[in-house]
Amino acid sequence: RYEITQREAVAEILPGVRTPLWTYEGTFPGPAIESRRGRPVTVTHRNELPVPTVVHLHGGRTPAASDGYPTDLVLPGHWHGDAVGDVTSGAMGHDTGHGGGMHDPRAAVTRLTRDYTFPLDQRATLLWYHDHRMDFTAPAIWRGLAGLHLVRDDAEDALGLPAGPRELPLMIADRAFDADGGLAYPALDPTLRQRPGVREPYLAGVLGDVILVNGAPWPVHEVDAARYRLRLLNASNARHYELEAVADGGRRLDLVQIGSDQGLLAAPVTHRLLPMAPAERYDVVIDFSGVPIGGRVRIVNRLGSGRTRDVMAFRVARRAPDGSRVPGTLCADLPAWRRSDAVRVRDFSFRAGRTHAGHGWVIGGLPFDPARADVTARLGDVEVWRLIADVHHPVHLHLVGFQVLSRGGRPPLPHDAGLKDTIALRPGEAAEIITRFDGYRGRYLFHCHNAEHEDMGMMANLEII
Ligand code: C2O
Ligand code: CU
Ligand code: CU
Fold this sequence. Notes:
Elements: E1 2-12, E2 18-24, E3 30-36, E4 41-47, E5 55-58, H1 90-93, H2 105-110, E6 113-118, E7 125-131, H3 137-142, E8 146-152, H4 154-157, E9 167-175, H5 190-193, E10 210-213, E11 216-217, E12 220-224, E13 227-234, E14 241-247, E15 252-253, E16 255-260, E17 263-271, E18 274-276, E19 281-287, E20 296-301, E21 310-318, E22 344-355, E23 358-363, E24 375-377, E25 382-389, E26 393-397, E27 403-407, E28 422-425, E29 430-436, E30 442-448, H6 451-455, E31 459-464
Parallel strand pairs: 1-4, 3-8, 9-13, 12-21, 22-25, 24-31
Antiparallel strand pairs: 1-2, 4-6, 5-7, 7-8, 9-10, 10-11, 13-19, 14-15, 14-18, 14-20, 16-17, 16-19, 20-21, 22-23, 25-29, 26-28, 26-30, 27-29, 30-31
Bound molecules: CU-O-CU linkage and copper (II) ion (2 copies).
C-alpha cells in the first residue's frame, strides 16, 4: 500500500536554478516503487495539482478500473470548476460519462483521491507510471508526472545478475528550460502557435536540449570495475535514442541486453548500438572491468547533436570483486505464439490526418474518440496485428505484452527480442506483432507513445470481452 500526493514542487535541476514541477510526492522522477510478482499493490493518489490527472502503470497487467483510462480522472483538491491553465478544453470537451462526474460539482470536491489496485500478476520487469489525461498527457509528463515501478520475482533473483548498488534504474528524458528556470513546453506557447506560416510547429513532438537521467542533467556516476545492470527507460516525450557506451580513446563497450519491456529475454543479445524509442525499456548489462581505474565511459546518443549527444557518464573509481554473472539462458517461460495460433489478423495505419484540432495524428484514419469501440477482442484469443507507419511511431498496447513477428517483411531486429509492450515503427515501415489478449476484460487502449502524437489523436480503444 502506498499513498502518493500529486503536488507542485520546486526542484534544483540545473545548478542554482529553481524549476517549478508537477510531481508525485514532491520529486522528479516520482518515488520508485518495488513490488514482488503476484503481490497486489494499492496506490492511493491524492491530487493537489491545479488540474485533473490520470495515473497509468505502463506495462502493468491491470484491471481496466485501475488502468488509468484517459477520462477516469482524479479531480484536483483546489479545483472549483473555474478555468485553470489548460484544463478548459480537452478533457472537459470530450466527457463521455466515464470521467467520474466531471459536470457534477459535488464530484469535484469529493473525488480528490483515487485508489489504483495493481495485481502485478506478471513477469518481473521495469514498469513506469505516468499521467494519461486525455489530450494533456504530454505536458503533464513533461512537467514531471512520471516514476518507476520495478516488479521482481524469485526466478530472476536466482540468476545472479548484478544487484544492489550495481543495479541502476535509469529514466532518460529530455527537457527544455525557459529563462526563469521553468520547464518550457513550447507547444503550449501561443506566440509560437500563432506565428504566421507555422501551421503546427510541434507535429513531430516536443524535444528538449537538456538530457536528464533520473532527473539530473548529464550525471556522472562512480562505479566499480565490475558488471552493472542498467534498467533503461526512455521517458522522453518524443526523443529517440541510439545509445552506445564509449570508453576513453573511443573503444565501444558491449551492451548485453538481458531484458525488454516485459522482462527477461530467453538468452542475452549483445549490442554495440541500442535504439530506444519513447516508453521502451531495455535491461542491459555492461562490464566496466576492462576500463582502467579513473577512466570514463560515456553513454552517447548517436542520434543527438551538440549537447544532446551526451546522456551520462560512468567514472570507474576502483577495483572490486564481482560475483555476478549473465547466464546463457535467462528464462524459459516466454510465451511462443505462432501465426497458426492467431484467430484474426488486423491492420492499422499510423499516419498524419485530420482531427478535431485540424491537423494531427490518427490510427486507421480516425482520431481518438473515447465513445468509439475501435477493436473488440475476445479474452484468450491470439491475434496478429499489422502496423504501418508514415513516420516514426512507437506503438504501445495496454494490458498485454507482444512479440514482434516481422519488420518490413523481414525477421525482427535483434533488439525486438523478448516480450514487448511498445514497438518503434520506423518511417514507412510495416511490422507484425502477435499477442494473446490475456488477463482482464474491459476497456483498454493502444496508442502512439510519442506523447504529443498521443495527445493529437493517435490513440484507439481496445475492448476486451
Ligand atoms: Cu505509457 Cu498508454 O501509456
Ligand atoms: Cu501503457
Ligand atoms: Cu507517433
